[in-house]
Amino acid sequence: MTDMKPTQPTARGEVIAPVIGPDPTLAYGFTPEPVRQPVKPLIFIDRPEPKRRGPLSRLRRHLRTLRHNRPFTIALFCLIAVLMLTPIVFTFLYSFFPKGEITTYLGLRNRYDATKWLDVLFAPSVVSLRQYYTILIEEPQYLKLFVNSAMYGAAILLGQTLVVPMTAYGLSRFTFKGRDTLFFLVLMLMLLPFQVTMAPSVMTLRALGLLNTAWAIILPGIFSPFYIFLLRQFMVGIPGEIIEAGQMDGAGTMRTFVHVVLPVCRPILGAAAALSFADCWNLVEQPLVYLQNVDLQPLSVMFNKINEEGQAVAFAGAALYLLPMLLIYIYFQDDILLGVQLSELK
Fold first, then answer.
1. Do 272 and 231 meet the contact criterion of CB atoms below 8 Å apart?
2. What phi, psi does 126 have (nearest 5°)?
3. Would you state the pLDDT for residue 1?
4. 52 found inside a domain
5. Is residue 118 situated within a structural domain?
6. 155-179 confidence digits (pLDDT tens)
7. What CATH number does residue 303 fall under?
8. pTM: predicted TM-score of the whole model, two decimal places
9. Concatenated DSSP letters of 224-268
10. Is 339 a residue whose pLDDT tops 70?
């Protein structure tokens, strides 16, 4: 093969004629063969032996298997539902028994044969509303205690509606000196049990002249640290763009709070309202400590007296006591479930 020198670069704009054969712009007319690089040796990494599964891992694996087993899961939840609903069903059922029959049946307590099953009554001999008539008409003291419980629950819920959301909004959206310290105190009050704060609360209420009055139950319940913490944690997760959009539309602080923040917090507000009403409805320790006047006691405190002195109307009283909580839960059921789901997502 004759030696071919590489051609000189052409001037700009010059037309190059097609070349037939080897490209003269390349050295020797062909592309040199690439030089082979040394091949890196393969390195085999020793894979560690799998660890033996412990009892906790095996338990998790079995629970995961059971969770994907839909018929077993349905049966398990049905069993749990039956166990939880059975006392409620029997309470409402026995409230329609005649007073004499239910008194005789309750008289068998602590006098039955331990080797035999206790007889369970599934239907009354005669359906009677005598228990409800006795509680509502003949002995109005029970109805008065019921009204006291409803009054405490409504007053505490109304006060919390005015105080708790605004406090939570201030702790979650505003920056001021002492904010973290104030939130830390809220956490400390939430963690302390009632037995620890009982003596300071009694001293404070006595100094204010509120001891043995209805305000001794209402005022401490309004400033509940748990619901301030619950709403504050939810409001922290609200995107700032939503609030900024309201402010760009000309909304001030209060208008943003009322028309932007509260509608977004509706699920957690419903869940907090249901839980707060349950706490107010089941007050026992606070009335016993703060109230000496029997006429101011709620129905939850007087249940022991009803079970001892009024066995004939005990189930009717329990049914009336359970009814408001059932209605509240049914009304706020969607909000409770949605609030729990949103809390898990956050």
1. yes
2. -140, 130
3. 47
4. no
5. no
6. 999 999 889 999 998 888 888 888 8
7. 1.10.3720.10
8. 0.70
9. -HHHHHHHHHHHHTS-HHHHHHHHHTT--HHHHIIIIIHHHTHHH
10. no
